[in-house]
Write a structure and sequence with these properties.
CATH class of the largest domain: Alpha Beta
Shape: globular
CATH superfamily of the largest domain: Glycogen Phosphorylase B
Radius of gyration: 21 Å
Order of helices and strands: EHEHEHEHEHEHEHEHHEHEHEEEEHH
Distance between the termini: 19 Å
Number of helices: 13
Oligomer: single chain
Helix content: 25-40%
Structural class: alpha/beta
Number of domains: 2
């Protein structure tokens, strides 16, 4: 039997991290549970600010873990604090592993703060992981270190992936604005999709947006965007849904109701949303600004911080309507992938400990 490796994972309860473990436990990796946030009462599903990312927590719990693995949740940290954490882990002979999910923080308008975090974590980590070869190449050029590429595991439960996909009428294109992250530029995308489907029989556009963006008193209210959405809905050119954040089951039902999910990002790196769509068999139209197409087959259009090429978006939507791509995960293969991902992490942890 393999000896158990105990991992302090930041965070531990995110679905990505939970699905790093072998479904049968064959990797013998035990990840510590998330401690409650330090500065506030924890909300359901909340894990940050992560209490593990502190010198006090590390010193108090050093005997409980073998490896310290940072995934995300360090946004509020000062880079000097991250450097102090790396110093303390080194003093305690606890290896630091870092998975580079984002080369650019999707919540930040400027890359400066995240770049400063990356400078510390990428250079100080004993082992580096990322999700795609493209991201690994960028990291190699920028920092002279080549991460191990380990793909994203499945997002949905395996039982849900195995379920028969329900049918629906028409061809449904969805753009989800969510809470309007800094990485999003949904207005030109929605306008482009509207133009693309106007002459396509049985095609319709569904736009979802959270109350914090749509409501005038919302913390992220965007008057230009919501005004446009209201006019388009009144003209019966879009189907508008305003709601709070979906639960997981509500989100899976929403995605299964789409034939094409269009990601309205102007910058980005990887996408858990795309992974969920692949699990459910919903085609994705992704921008070419990140490494989304290296995760799974998808359609692409040209969109970055310099703007969007409407022609490429409209052509891709029409292509999806004509071809009806049905890229979908198979539950057995996803289970096998998960075992392979878990084994790869076990090897990385063993190398770090050596």
């Amino acid at each position: 039997m393999l000896p158990t490796i105990r991992v302090a994972s930041v965070p531990a309860q995110h679905v990505y991290v939970r699905h790093l473990s072998d479904p049968d436990g064959a990797d013998a990796v035990a990840r510590l549970s998330d401690p409650p946030p330090q500065d506030s009462a924890p909300l359901v599903g909340q894990w940050w600010p992560p209490a593990m990312l502190s010198l006090d927590w590390i010193d108090a719990h050093a005997e409980e873990f073998d490896v310290f693995h940072v995934q995300f949740g360090f946004d509020a940290q000062d880079p000097a604090n991250l450097a102090s954490i790396a110093d303390e882990l080194a003093r305690l002979h606890k290896p630091l592993v870092y998975t580079v999910h984002d080369l650019r923080n999707p919540h930040h308008l400027s890359p400066a703060a995240h770049d400063a975090h990356l400078d510390v974590l990428v250079q100080r980590a004993d082992e580096l992981i990322t999700l795609t070869p493209g991201a690994a190449e960028v990291i190699g050029r920028a920092w002279g270190r080549r991460p191990v590429v380990v793909p994203h595991p499945h997002v949905l439960d395996l039982a849900r992936i195995a379920r028969t996909r329900p049918s629906h009428d028409g061809f449904v294109v969805g753009v989800h604005v969510k809470s309007l992250r800094a990485s999003m530029a949904p207005l030109p995308v929605i306008q482009g999709v509207r133009r693309a489907i106007r002459d396509l029989p049985d095609a319709r556009l569904v736009v979802d947006v959270h109350h914090d963006v749509f409501d005038p008193e919302g913390s992220r209210h965007d008057a230009e965007l919501t005004g446009y959405l209201c006019r388009a809905a009144d003209d019966h050119e879009i189907e508008l849904h305003v709601h709070d954040c979906y639960s997981d089951d509500e989100l899976w039902d929403y995605l299964e109701g789409l034939d094409l999910s269009v990601l309205p990002y102007r910058f980005g790196t990887h996408s858990g949303w795309l992974e969920a769509c692949f699990d459910l068999g919903t085609a994705v139209l992704a921008p070419d600004c990140g490494y989304f197409a290296e995760q799974h087959p998808c359609l692409q259009y040209s969109h970055d911080e310099n703007g969007m090429d409407s022609a490429s978006l409209e052509a891709a939507v029409r292509h999806a309507w004509e071809r009806r791509p049905g890229w979908r995960a198979e539950a057995g293969r996803r289970r096998q992938e998960r075992a392979e991902i878990a084994a790869a992490h076990r090897v990385i942890y063993e190398r770090a400990l050596a």
